[in-house]
Amino acid sequence: MRKNIFILLIIQLFIGCSSDDNSSKSAFSIDLVSSATNVVLDQSFTVAINANQSMKYLWISTDNFATGDYAIQNFGTSFNLNLNFDTLGQKTISVRAKNQNNEVSEKQIVVTVTRGNAIKILGVQIVSFYGINTVYDPEFPASNPESLADLRFGFSKLSLDSYLSNDYSWRSWYQSTVIPNQGTMTWDCSGSNLYIDPSKNLRFGLADIDNGVAGSDLLNGPPDYREINFSNFVITKPSTITYTFPEINLEFKVFVEWTN
Ligand SMILES: [Ca+2]
Ligand SMILES: [Ca+2]
């Protein structure tokens, strides 16, 4: 009897060990290693995803998978994310990975973004544009101020195509409100957190808006933008910077806040 109990214990121990062993071997898991935990605005950094088995699916999100970028491909056991942020504060980067058997592993890493020497764009004022004081809304007679352009400006900048990409494309960064019939031609953007590394380029566009959509390009394009940057001003740090493009009668001012 004692011998039987002993054998039973041995079998249970064996089953226990063997089962633990199997699960640790088969459990798919990933780890995240960030090249930096504190970065400045617009600074590029990498997050390495290292897995104990080959990854075939990755979903990357900075809002706990409400949105994000995903792809199905053979990622192997290691894949580098290239990231940068243009807003301040703590960013939680969530990664959900699947192996060939659709087993899931999910990890998060937190990175803090500080301002560094980023400028903040406080406002924009249009001084002149192509066709200023002429009819852009011909449904009104020229004598009616309603015929004047309804102004919206926008900024685009080079942004990563996705968290899983190394490629950058020009993408809309900011679109202003519409000022009807030329109006003040001045926008206060100070509440929009428009921080940017002054070495980055921006594309400026300006359009007449009809019923909420762009009617006419006010830069007489193509191209329907002009490129600006702030790198010539990092020493003098003026709070108002004027950009002029005489060939299209374009002049505008950008109001900026510099760090000390
Ligand atoms: Ca109008
Ligand atoms: Ca219009």
Structural overview:
The protein is built from one helix and 16 strands. With 260 residues, the chain is mainly β. Strands 1, 2, 3, 4, 5 and 6 form a six-stranded mixed beta sheet that branches. The chain folds into two domains: 27-114, Sandwich (Immunoglobulin-like); 119-257, C2 domain (Immunoglobulin-like), CATH 2.60.40.150. The relative contact order is 0.15. The model is unreliable at 5-24 (pLDDT under 50).
Mean pLDDT: 92
Structural class assignment: mainly beta
CATH topology of the largest domain: Immunoglobulin-like
Count of DSSP helices? 1
Question: How many E-type strands?
Answer: 16
Radius of gyration: 28 Å
DSSP helix fraction: under 10%
Which hetero ligands occur in this complex?
Answer: calcium ion
Tell me the domain tally.
2
- Strand content range: over 45%
Low-confidence stretches are 5-24
Shape: elongated
Helices and strands, in N-to-C order?
HEEEEEEEEEEEEEEEE
Summarize the main sheet. 6 strands, mixed
Reading off the top of the CATH hierarchy, the class of the largest domain is best stated as: Mainly Beta
